[in-house]
């Protein structure tokens, strides 16, 4: 599928200064992946239309879910450290994150969220879910990030670097 190939190519060429098993890593990846949507609004609109169409096959839905920001390593760590709330079902939590990401993107491509607020709203949505699902240091860190966003009006900034040695091209900001 063409959209999946474009996504995977982007991921291969992108490096990050954070590790994927940290909340900062999740946020940096979420911001980086979604920043490209500004230059690919029609592509993004088509992808979200497919995601929310009742006629889209389950194979395509699973492929699109796989393109959502990758939480597996981070959630593995959170779960291993026993920082998920006891009522949380991991698979349902992952799907909630993915659905929230696509819903926010869909609101943006439909003009319900301005370009200026798009990434902030997306990050805040993911952090709010994290606050409700996590305990301990993960919960506290998510709250600190949310408070900082609210007090400054700015997203967290991450230096561009190479914590992921698997990608050959460095993202420049």
Explain this structure to me?
- The protein has 173 residues and is mostly helical.
- It is built from eight helices and no strands.
- Helix 3 crosses helix 6 and helix 6 runs antiparallel to helix 7.
- The longest helix is centred in the middle third of the chain and has 20 residues, at 90-109.
Principal-axis shape equals: globular
Strand content: under 5%
Helix/sheet category: mainly alpha
- Biggest β-sheet, characterized? none
User: What is the typical, i.e. mean, pLDDT?
Assistant: 85
Q: How many H/I helices?
A: 8
Number of strands: 0
Q: What's the structural domain tally?
A: 1
| SSE topology string | HHHHHHHH
Low-confidence stretches: 162-173
Approximate helicity band: 55-70%
Radius of gyration: 16 Å
Question: How widely separated are the two ends?
Answer: 29 Å
Layout of strands and helices, then pairs:
Layout: H1 2-12, H2 23-35, H3 41-52, H4 58-67, H5 72-80, H6 90-109, H7 115-133, H8 136-152
Helix pairs in contact: 2-7, 3-6, 6-7, 7-8
Short note summarizing the structure:
The protein is an all-alpha fold and 173 residues long. It has one domain.
Task: State the main characteristics.
disordered C terminus, 64% helix, globular, 173 residues
């Amino acid at each position: 599928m063409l959209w999946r190939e474009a996504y995977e190519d982007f991921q291969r060429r992108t490096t990050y200064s954070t590790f994927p098993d940290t909340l900062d890593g999740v946020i940096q990846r979420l911001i980086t992946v979604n920043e490209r949507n500004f230059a690919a609004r029609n592509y993004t609109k088509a992808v979200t239309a497919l995601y929310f169409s009742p006629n889209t096959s389950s194979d395509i839905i699973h492929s699109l879910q796989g393109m959502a920001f990758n939480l597996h390593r981070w959630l593995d760590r959170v779960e291993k450290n026993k920082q998920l709330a006891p009522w949380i079902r991991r698979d349902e939590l992952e799907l909630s994150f993915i659905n929230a990401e696509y819903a926010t993107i869909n609101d943006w491509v439909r003009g319900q969220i301005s370009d200026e607020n798009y990434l902030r709203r997306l990050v805040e949505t993911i952090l709010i879910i994290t606050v409700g699902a996590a305990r301990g240091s993960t919960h506290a860190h998510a709250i600190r990030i949310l408070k900082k966003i609210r007090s400054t009006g700015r997203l967290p900034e991450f230096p561009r670097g190479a914590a992921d040695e698997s990608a050959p091209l460095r993202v420049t900001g």
